[in-house]
Amino acid sequence: MQEAAIETQPDHDEVVAVVPGDVEMTADERAVLACRPINELEALLLQHPDHFAKEGIPTTHRFIEKNNGLESGMYVREVVLPAGAIITTEIHRTRHPFVISKGTCEVWSPRDGWQILSAPMTGITEPATRRVIHVLAETIWTTFHAVNITVPEEVVAFVTLPHRIVGTPKFDIKAAIAALK
Questions:
Q1: Dist CA 3 CA 20 (whole Å)
Q2: What does pTM read for this prediction?
Q3: Domain covering 3-178, topology
Q4: What are the CA-CA distances from residue 29 to residues 18, 115, 130, 133, 181 (Å)?
Q5: 3-state DSSP helix/strand/coil percent for the chain, to nearest 5?
Q6: Where are the beta strands (DSSP E) in the chain?
Q7: What is the mean pLDDT of the chain?
């Protein structure tokens, strides 16, 4: 499968996010994919999986099948984010609600900048959202997706933009976070 890189500058040593070449993207998705500070931070986090890994985060998957004349079912994903964790999210392709039922996070996105989000809170994730989450206190974050899919990996493939990070980061964690404005 051919991949296309989205670069913010012609510097080939730069950390970039790449997507499979056959994936169509909106202009907003291209812009968030090219966000150099998030790419740098994600590259750094990938170098320290013992401290910042997304894998191993307790996740509960629930499915509600289409019923009573509803047009779709629902996938409910609940994650328990440990205090102190720094996480970059996937790039969301759908508009969907989320609930923070416990905890406090410092959250950054290109659209909203830095915000403190605390339980109890309900919000909406817009398409082309990619976040950096610094968990200040253990947090339970739940998302809700209107889909007729019952395999978690297939839901993720449907509701997020597939990407991977290539390149060597030039910043340390503090400098990468400071670059998020």
A1: 4
A2: 0.85
A3: Jelly Rolls (2.60.120)
A4: 12, 21, 9, 19, 19
A5: 20, 40, 40
A6: 3-6, 16-20, 59-64, 74-81, 86-88, 91-92, 96-109, 113-118, 121-125, 132-146, 160-161, 164-166
A7: 86
CB 180 within 8 A of CB 108: yes
At 57 the three-state DSSP class reads coil
Query: In one letter, which amino acid is 67?
Result: N
Dihedral angle at the C-alpha atoms of 83, 85, 91, 95, nearest 10 degrees?
A: 0
Token pair 């209107």: residue: 146
Query: How do beta strands 132-146 and 121-125 pair?
Result: unpaired
Domain regions of the chain by residue span: 3-178
Q: Report how far residue 161's alpha carbon sits from residue 71's, in angstroms, rounded to the nearest whole number.
A: 24
If you ran DSSP here, which 8-state letter would residue 55 be given?
T
Inter-residue contact 46 to 88 (CB < 8 Å): no
How far is it, in rounded angstroms, from Cα 4 to Cα 17?
A: 9
> What's the pLDDT tens digit per position in 10-27?
344 678 888 887 788 999
